[in-house]
Amino acid sequence: MVPNFIQKQAREYMHAHGVRYQQALDAVTAQLDDNNGAAGHSDVAQLLRIPIGVTDYGEYGESFELDLKDEARGGTGPHGLCVGDPGTGKTEFLHTLVVNGCASHSPEDLNWVLAGWHSPQFKRLSDLPHVVSVIANGSDLWGVVVAELDRRLSVLREAEARDIWDYRSMRERNAEMDPLPTLIIVVDDYDILASNDPDLRDAFRRVVRLGRSLGVQCLLAVQPAGLDVNILERLLPSINYILAFRMGAVAARWAGVEHLEARDLRPGSAILRTGTTGKHLQISLTSRMEKATVIEARSQQAAEAVRNALDNRQDVLGWAAEPKAYSPAGLRSSGDGKNLGANVDPSDLRPGDVLEWQGKTMVAVAPGLVADPTEPGVTRTLEDVLMDQKGFEGIFRPTEKDPTSPAHASASAQQQVLEGAQRPDA
Fold first, then answer.
1. What is the per-residue pLDDT for 308?
2. Mean pLDDT, range 20-24, rounded to an integer
3. Which of 111, 142, 309, 359 is 20 to 30 A off residue 48, Cα-Cα?
4. Which residue has the higher pLDDT, 341 or 25?
5. In 10 A of CB 252, how many CB atoms?
6. 420 pLDDT more than 70
């Protein structure tokens, strides 16, 4: 499978040099081979070990790597399930896993197929050299999965290799053999994509049955609320690990983490269950503000809303900032309590914009992230909060003219607030 960004470069090369597509593809691939030394070839011990966060909380938390090699090679196993309620950090974990996997591996060692019906974060990763495809619907995903399984069967058969590990060993002795990277298929909201698609469910049953030897793995993220467990019934015996975020008691029992306090997890915290044991983790946050650490808001009220939403946080390892008083009503920009400013499209969301429901107000604190001022320390992705359309009135940008404050104000915050990478006083 040729990644999208290579196909794009090959087409550009073809038009620029007046050559056939295959000639352009060969030329582009050769150039990339010369530049791939930065990531290098991962050694076997570090292969498929991806940093995702820290263990536990507090001063003694240690960096944790998810090892996706077979159990026989010291890993957790190839196939996983990610379970949690909306807004608990599932999608951010998937983003972190992919980004850190790309940072620590060569494209010759690790590739990704990313799928999800409402996952804009995946689209932003489509140009990474490791990402083969980003898919939004089940029928396209089914076709990609089946074709890749068949292709790999053919490659191993032709090379007379027992499995992908045997193929890797053969390639070490024969550099002319094509690389066969491990392919991880990540599906956000698998329960939605597969609910009315028996072909897709059959395709993933093939993945968990054949993928171990072919070097194809899957990580399926689902929401427990309303989940039809029949969708997963024939997959569960082959699932090697479960990453559980906050969920209700019934779902926690189903996921086998009821004894590990999954109901009390805060956003970004998770339990990694392998077999009958569980490990508490705090997932790293890879999303960040786009450029500067200064946020420009359209009014003093909006600026204060952003500042308070950022300051009323609990950082990744549990150090809490001093809470500041703030009422959602403070976002009102006129005395009648109704004028919230111009209506805004979700695609144009900026810090300081207001999301209004009947009886609830939230504020944008960074691109793609919003906060509820009544829940200190919690940020949620825009896509998660917009799933709740009940009583939703829209997104608004406070008016530039403010009856009580200067027309323009800025709210300043350290980038580490969103990155969660360091202790605040470090």
1. 56
2. 79
3. 142
4. 25
5. 22
6. no
User: Does residue 142 share a domain with residue 121?
Assistant: yes
85 is in an annotated binding site: yes
For residue 405, the model assigns a pLDDT of 38
> Would you tell me how many other CB atoms lie within 10 Å of the CB of residue 107?
20
CA-nearest of 291, 296, 266 to 280 is 266
What per-residue confidence (pLDDT) applies to 389? 75
Residue 278 is assigned to a ligand binding site: no
Instruction: For residue 84, say whether it is annotated as part of any ligand binding site.
Output: yes
Residue 268 and residue 188 share a domain:
yes
Is residue 250 located within the same domain as residue 308?
no
**What's the whole-model pTM score?**
0.63
Q: Is position 86 annotated in a ligand binding site?
A: yes
Residue 91 among known ligand-binding residues: yes
Residue 140 lies in domain: 48-283
In a domain, 422, yes or no: no
| SS3 of residue 229 by DSSP | helix
The count of domains in the chain is: 2
Is position 318 annotated in a ligand binding site? no
Per-residue H/E/C for 319-353 = CECCCCCCCHHHHCCCCCCCCCCEEECHHHCCCCC
CA distance 222 to 204: 14
Mark which of 283, 314, 341 sits at the end of a domain: 283
423 DSSP 8-state letter: -
From 259, 283, 307, the end of a domain falls on: 283
What single string gives the DSSP state of each residue in 242-297? EEE-S--HHHHHHHT-GGGTGGGPPTTEEEEEETTEEEEEEE------SS-SEEEE
Same domain, 304 and 277: no
**Backbone φ and ψ of 75, nearest 5°:** -95, 180
Q: Please tell me the distance from the alpha carbon of residue 110 to that of residue 44, in angstroms, as a whole number.
A: 12
* 88 annotated to bind ligand: yes
Domain co-membership, 340 together with 251: no
The CATH number linked to 342 is 3.90.1720
Residue 399 assigned as binding residue: no
pLDDT tens sequence across 45-56? 789 999 998 886
* Half-sphere exposure (Cβ direction) of 392: Cα atoms closer than 13 Å: 14
Residues 318 and 354 in one domain: yes
